[in-house]
Amino acid sequence: MSKFESYTLFSGGAQGAESEFGQLAEQYGLAEVNYTFEGHKIERTRGIRVLTNEELIRKDVSLTYVSKLLSRKFTNAEKMRKVLQTIMHQVESSHQVFVVGTIQEDGTVKGGTGWGAEFAKICNKDLFVFGQVKNGWFKWESGQWEPVTAPVISEMHFTGTGTRFLEDNGRKAIADLFARSFK
Question: Which domain of life is it from (predicted)?
Answer without folding.
Answer: Bacteria
